[in-house]
Amino acid sequence: MIGHIRVTIPVPKEAYGDEIRIEIEPHMTLLEDTFHAPILMPQTDDDFFVAIGQETSYAMLVTILVCCVFGMMITLFFYRILDFAPEGYWMFFLIFSMTLWYMGNSGLIYLLLPSEDFNAVCEYVGMYLLMGTAPIYSSFEVERPRVKRYLQTFGKFALTVGILTVVFYVLPSGYTFVDHLRWMQAFQIVMVISALLSLLFPGKKIKTTSDYIMQWGLIFVALFGLLEQTRIIAAASITERAPLILQWFAKQRFAKVLIILMVFTFATSYFFKMAFIVQKTLEEKHLKMLAYTDNLTALGNRQYLQRKLDMLDDNRKRRLCGHLH
Questions:
Q1: How many Å separate Cα 44 from the centre of its chain?
Q2: Which of 9, 72, 129, 325 could make an S-S bridge to 97, C-beta 3.0–4.6 Å?
Q3: Residue 179, φ and ψ in degrees, nearest 5
Q4: pLDDT at 76
Q5: pTM, entire model
Q6: What is the pLDDT of residues 286-305, one digit of tens each?
Q7: pLDDT score for 74
Q8: What digits encode the pLDDT tens for the residues 31-51?
Q9: Cα–Cα distance for residue pair 185/26, rounded to 1 Å
C-alpha cells in the first residue's frame, strides 16, 4: 500500500527475502494529505509544494524576522542606556523565536533554502529559543519577586541549554536535535505556560493601558494556541468522510493568527509602556525644574542656590581628603 493506493509489482520466481527495495528515477517524493490522493512529484517540486497558498504568509513572516533582527540590534545598543531597551530586546527575541519555529514547522523555510535538514534545524532552534525567551521576557512584566526570580533563572537556564544544543549540533559531536526531544518539548510547555500565566496575572496593583492590552491580547493568543493544539491532535483522525465543519477545522492555520496576535499585542503594549516611561521621565524633569526655579523670572531660587552650595562644599571636602591621604 502507498497511501490509499494499492500497488502490485510482479516479482520473479527466483527472488527471495522479506524486503524488496524499488527505486524510481528520477527521484520522486510521495506527497499525501488527509483529503487528497497521494501524488508523485520530483523532489524539487515537493520542496515548494507546502508554500502553495501561503505566499502572503511567507512574505509577512520573513518581514517579521527581519524587523526582529533589526529591533534586537537597536535595543541591544541601548541595553544599558534606556530603561525600556532590555524589555524591548527580549520582546523582539521572543517574536523571532516563535516566528522561526512556525516557519520551520509549516515548511515555509524551504522557500529560503530548499533543504530538509535546514528546515528541521530552524524548527528546533526556534523551539529551543522559545522556551528561554518566553520566561525572560515575561519577567519584565511581573512584580512578584519570587515569580520574577523563577522566570529569570529558568529562562536563562533554558536559553543556555538551547544555545549549547546548537553548538553541539554544529560541532562534529554526533548530537542531533531529536536526542531528548520529548523531554525538551515537555520543558518548553512548562516554560511557556509559566510565562503565559505570569503575563496574565502579573500582580500589579495599578494597571496602565499597556497592562490591559497585554492581558486581553494574551487571552486571545492562548485561545488560538489551544485551537492550534486541538487541530494538530484531531487532524490525524479527520478524513474526507468527516463532516465538512471538521474538515474545515483541520485545514485552518491557527498558529499564523496566533503569531499575528502575539506581534500586535507585544508591540502595542510595549509602545504604550515606552510612552508612559518617557512621559513619566519628562514629568519628573519638569517637577524638578519647578522646584529649583522662580515662577516669575525662571531663574534659580533659594533651593537651587542651597543645592549648588552643598555640591561645592562636598567637592571641597573631597579635595581636602585627597590631599590628606
A1: 30
A2: 129
A3: -60, 125
A4: 92
A5: 0.70
A6: 777 777 777 767 677 777 77
A7: 92
A8: 444 444 444 445 555 555 555
A9: 37
Examine residue 10 and say whether the peptide bond preceding it is cis (omega within 30 degrees of 0).
Answer: no
Tell me if 109 sits within 8 A of 119, measured CB to CB. Answer: yes
Q: Count the neighbouring beta carbons within 10 Å of the beta carbon of residue 299.
A: 9
Q: Angle between the 55-77 and 254-292 helix axes, to the nearest 10 degrees?
A: 30
CB neighbourhood size of 157 (10 A): 15
Cell 499575528 belongs to residue: 260
Please answer whether residues 44 and 114 qualify as being in contact, where contact means their C-beta atoms are separated by less than 8 angstroms: yes
Residue with cell 520473479: 12
Q: For cell 483541520, name the residue.
A: 250
Q: Which residue has the cell 529560503?
A: 112
Determine the Cα–Cα distance for residues 255 and 262; give it in Å rounded to an integer: 10
**Below-50 pLDDT ranges, the chain:** 1-4, 24-41
What HEC string does the chain produce? CECCECCCCCCCCCCCCCCCCCCCCCCEEEECCCCCCCEEEEHHHHHHHCCCCCHHHHHHHHHHHHHHHHHHHHHHHCCCCCCCHHHHHHHHHHHHHHHHHHHHHHCHHHHCCCCHHHHHHHHHHHHHHHHHHHHHHHHCCCCCHHHHHHHHHHHHHHHHHHHHHHHHHHCCCCCCCCCCHHHHHHHHHHHHHHHHHHHHCCCCCCCCHHHHHHHHHHHHHHHHHHHHHHHHHHHCCCCCCCCHHHHHHHHCCHHHHHHHHHHHHHHHHHHHHHHHHHHHHHHHHHHHHHHHECCCCCCECHHHHHHHHHHHHHHHHHHHHHHHC
Grid coordinates representing 307 are 543645592
